[in-house]
Amino acid sequence: MTAAPDFLPVLPEMFLGASGMVLLIVGAYAGARAIRAVTWLAVLALAATAAILLYPAWTAGVTRQVSLFGMFVTDGLGVFTQTLVIIGSLLSLLIAMRFNEREGIARFEFPVLVLIATAGMMMMIAANDLIALYLGLELQSLALYVLAAFARDDVRSTEAGLKYFVLGAVASGMLLFGASMVYGFAGTTSFDGLAKLFAGGGAAGVGLITGIVFISVGLAFKVSAVPFHMWTPDVYEGAPTPVTAFFSIAPKIAALTLFLRVMLQPFGGLFGDWQQIIWAISVASMAWGAFAAIAQRNIKRLMAYSSIGHVGYALIGLAAGTAAGVRGVLVYIAIYLFMNVGTFAGILCMRRNGKMVEGIDDLAGLSRTHPALALALAIFMFSLAGIPPLAGFFGKLYVFMAAIDAGLPVLAVIGVLTSVVGAYYYLRIVKLMYFDEAQGAFDRPFGGEVAAVLLVCAVAILFFIAWPGPLLNGADAVAATLFPG
Amino acid sequence: MHVAAVFLPLIAAFIAGFFGRWIGDRGAQLVTCLALVAAAVLGAIVFWSVAIVGHARTIDLLTWIDAGDLRVRWALRYDTLSAVMVAAVTLVSAMVHIYSVGYMAHDKSVPRFMSYLSLFTFFMLMLVTADNFVQLFFGWEGVGLMSYLLIGFWYDRPSANAAAIKAFIVNRIGDFGFALGIFAVYLIFGSLQFDTVFAAAPDVAHNTIPFLGHQVDAITVTCILLFIGAMGKSAQLGLHTWLPDAMEGPTPVSALIHAATMVTAGVFMLARLSPLFEYSPTALAVVVVIGGSTAMFAATIGMAQNDIKRVIAYSTCSQLGYMFFAAGVSAYGAAIFHLVTHAFFKALLFLAAGSVIHAMSGEQDMRKMGGLRTLIPATYLLMWVGSLALAGIWPFAGYYSKDVIIEAAWASGTGVGHYAYWLGVFAAFLTAFYSWRLIFLTFHGKPRASKEVMAHVHESPPVMILPLLVLAAGALFAGMAGYHWFVGEGRDAFWGDSILVLPGHDNLAGAETVPFWAAKLPLAMGLGGIFVAWIAYVVETGIPALTARWLRPVYLLFLNKWYFDELYDAIIVRPAMWLGIRLWKDGDGAVIDGLGPDGFAKVTRGMAAVLSRFQTGYLYHYVFAMFVGAVVLVSWYVLRQAG
Predict the structure, then answer these.
(1) Given B615, B621, B638, which is nearest A233 (Cβ)?
(2) Are strands B214-217 and B208-211 parallel, antiparallel or unpaired?
(3) Of A167, A295, A421, which is closest to B612 when you measure between CB atoms?
């Protein structure tokens, strides 16, 4: 077996990891004056990774390819979600740049850590073995722990980092425990091997089941599904806002993809066993996210609950366990990416008299002080609430439809009901911005990158209805590959 | 030309209504008045060509509804009947428009007012030119809507709003009957086109349909249902309560409602549907009884009212009663004749009353007037003309039209006809009495108003007097001019096919042969009424108070309008209010809101508070939650496998 053809499929990951290390060296030597350069280079590296990832897919199409001795898999699902992860990371870097400078936490390690975390996520997505899964997960997690505590002079930020680290370690431990149980009872860590084992649909023993449960607990922690979500509000609130934005997007997408892959490929044969677990987690997440958010006064905490709720919606697609369900999840996370980046870009503009403000009430009267920003935020809020004709509506529509087709009408009904509750707090923000007495204006300027990101996201959300084809077809094709026959 | 006469007011209303802000008060007045004057001129020409020359025609505009068997057109049906109505409506309305320029000069929303007036006129024209029941209903409802808007024009007055709502709701009751009537027509004839229905009417004359569990005569039940609609719009006994309250609107509106555009709709409908009503003697008898009773009943109330406009309002109600029993004895021509003459003198009376009110700085109570004769002589004179016409004194218009109605009632020779005759005769006496009571109280005697008010009394501007002169001319000559065509020798040629009178029913022919005393009794009664009023209010002014004391119960009955409002209040309004409030507070508020929106919101907020309490911030709580979750999930799996 020659090495060269085997490495080609993992080129994007390798390139990204190498870029991260090179930039680390560049930063270390060049010091503080090169922060901007390093950031832009990181953006460039992400763009290049996307190009490397997409070029073969563009020219030759995507065929499932297992490499590195069965550790890695390259397939449609991977390419699709890796692209989304890269976009998320890239946008997060863009909106973070000025913020870090203004807050005095601009350090060249930031872009480097984002790159390494992204590389970890890509590995997670491409994992075809429990070991590879764990490696990718840890790579991204370790980078994220540091990022959470990035404002290291800030008590809240360090607290967030520490909490995330401890809880993340517990979750990793549980995942490892589960993986070892699976290995112990199944005798293999390879996804393909596991899939073959369970293909018969026979009953799995208690030991194996326990293993699977612990693996799902670890994954549920990463996507912050209830009841493993407790870290989310605290970490989201404490971490610097661009980091929160990054947290709420890229790792979520990666972890959800991993969740999909693990449940559907190695454990696909046990669908009947785990479907109800996912069902319960999904309902709990939707309900908790909707209800708990109402009591929040801090917009970042609110977004934390919002993301918990959205994970619940995405998991509906997984609970359906059909191609339509997977398509729903993929469409959902793609749309969610833009809604969330946009919202956080808006939150980054909330700075008054040189200090960040995070209270929901601080948005009052925004339509008079910053009409364009208020309009953009209103678009995101309406979309998050799932109001047609904005993109967020379609995200929900497809997962609900999938659930109904899969015979889970109750799940769809609960989803609709909780999104009604959720609409309350999203629309309250719109009401605050448009109908309440104006607070003082926010500091200007917001920065060109932030404005551009806001614009791109708002346009994407607003006009998705006009041109939904690429996303829908892409998600369709990907979903079809997961369910051959 | 035929189309323009109908649609000019609509266009004017559109311009004044939507662009009033830009064209200003003057512009709105100019546009609407010009449009209405043009429409009146066209209306006169159309009248000439259709009614006199005899070019009846129907102008198709477009197909409105085409659903299954139901086909409804938009068309303007121009026969003599509608031509008469168009001419009268546009003429009176044009005068009211011009008068409003002066009367509403100080109001702050002139364009809105002018726009409403024009739209009101348009809907009435739509009604009278209708070619089918649905179009008739469209105009009918439009008129109802506009009356609501105009009566409530001064929407900052609670009383105006109450009156507007009352008018709308009472009309709704009538409209409900009307709508049921239309359904019955469709059920029986399978069409809503006038021509089709009228042609088929003789064939179904004795058919029966099930109604409320009984087999009833098809045409009778249809006609009575339709007549309920007419009763509502034309304020007949039972559904009359809205009309006096409608005085809350500006005076030109009262004139328009009473003279041309609204209350006459019911009379018009009866004439238009004469080919149906003629086949139901029962329905006609009902019409006669209701009409005769209303004529009498409203006149008694008119005697005791103190508000100058209310007196005239009840007089309208009473005169409409005349028109109805005329229609009931198949003297449709006489009904329409009286409608037209009445339009002139009633508009005249209202606008003259408006001129009085204008002069008295808004005072409407006759007890606070008096002695205005020398101060506003032109109005005084015009009031006399109007009252003479109303009382039916020769040679004024009312003499011709009212006498022929009363004669026709006699000539019908039926029991109900004689009932109507005697009530009509007596009502004629009362009419004359209350008219001159009004004149004497207002214009004669010593001034009873405060000095400041009297000092301000002034004659109205020419823009208000001029239309009055036109109307006065109508009140003087319309009777003489129209007698031949409407009810005299030329009537058959004049009406042509637009009105059907079955051979045995031609009481207008019989009217020419009634005994001399029966024919001249109304005139004598009218003169008698004037004389009594003169005695009571000029010669011996103590008499009214004395009478009121002697006949106190009767006086109170009249003053309080036979307690109709109180009766309705007790048996309908208050129970409905009670039910509404209970449904609102207990049904909607406590049950639906309490368990629905409010309850959900409360539960949601409570849930949010509970859930956020889980978020303690302590790591070991979080880890504990994770382990609990894991244990629960494992247990679930294991139990599932076991079970």
Answers:
(1) B615
(2) antiparallel
(3) A295
Q: What is the DSSP letter of B604?
A: H
Using CA atoms, how far apart are residues B269 and B234, in angstroms rounded to an integer? 10
Interface contact flag, B626 A217, Cβ < 8 Å: yes
A356 within domain boundaries? yes
Residue B51 has pLDDT above 90, yes or no: no
CB contact under 8 A, A277 and B640: no
Domain-located, residue A342: yes
DSSP sequence for B180-214: HHHHHHHHHHS--BHHHHHHHGGGGTT-EEEETTE
pLDDT in tens, B459-514: 888 888 888 898 899 888 888 888 888 888 888 888 888 888 888 778 877 777 78
Q: Is B624 on the interface with A (CB under 8 A)?
A: no
| Closest to A84 in 3D by CA, of A61, A62, A53 | A53
Domain count, chain A: 1
For residue A227, the chain B residues in CB contact (below 8 A) are 625-626, 628-629
Provide φ and ψ at B153, rounded to 5°.
Answer: -60, -45
Of B54, B152, B36, whose CA–CA distance to B97 is shortest? B36
Q: What percent of chain A has pLDDT over 90?
A: 45
Is A234 in contact with B615 (Cβ distance < 8 A)?
A: yes
Asked if B596 reaches chain A (Cβ–Cβ under 8 Å), the answer is no
Chain B contact for A87 (CB, 8 A cutoff)? no
| Rounded-to-integer distance, Cα A43 and Cα A37, Å | 10
Q: Which residues contact A276 (CB under 8 A, 6 or more apart)?
A: B636, B640
The structure tokens listed for A137 are 């997960």
pLDDT at position A1 over 50: no
Instruction: Please indicate, yes or no, if residue A1 is contained in any of the structural domains.
Output: no
Dist CA B153 CA B343 (whole Å) = 23
User: Per the domain annotation, does A5 fall within a domain?
Assistant: no
CA distances from A166 to A173, A308, B592 (A): 10, 20, 49
Q: How many CB atoms lie within 10 A of CB B66?
A: 10
Put simply, the answer to whether B619 touches A210 (Cβ < 8 Å) is: no
- Give the pLDDT confidence score for residue A5 in this predicted structure: 54
Cβ of A230 within 8 Å of Cβ of B626? The answer is: yes
CA–CA gap between residue A148 and residue B405 (Å, rounded): 98
Indicate the residue of B619, B621, B641 with minimum beta-carbon distance to A203: B641
CB burial of A43-70 (b: ≥16 within 10 Å; e: otherwise) equals: bebbebbbeebbebbeeeebeeebbbeb
Asked if A295 reaches chain B (Cβ–Cβ under 8 Å), the answer is yes
Please list every residue in chain A whose beta carbon sits closer than 8 Å to the beta carbon of residue B630: 174, 213-214, 217
| Residue B630 near residue A217 (C-beta atoms within 8 A) | yes
Q: Supply the pLDDT for residue B582.
A: 86
DSSP B238-277: TS-THHHHGGGS-HHHHHHIIIIISTHHHHHHHHHTHHHH
Question: For the whole model, what pTM was predicted?
Answer: 0.64
Note whether A455 and A385 are within 8 A (CB). Answer: no
A206 and B615 in contact by Cβ < 8 A? no
Q: Locate B187 and state its tokens.
A: 């059920």
Q: Closest-CA residue in chain B for A209?
A: B637
Task: Determine, for residues A276 and B640 on separate chains, whether the beta-carbon distance falls below 8 Å.
Answer: yes
Neighbours of B519 (CB within 10 A): 18
Range of the domain at A307: 10-482
Q: Does B614 touch chain A (CB under 8 A)?
A: yes
DSSP notation for B302-321: HHH--BHHHHHHHHHHHHHH
Measured between beta carbons, the chain A residues lying within 8 angstroms of B617 are 234
Residue B120: name the closest of B258, B261, B219, B222 by CA. Answer: B261
CB contact under 8 Å between A296 and B612, yes or no, is yes
* Beta strand spans in A263-381 (E): 351-352, 355-356
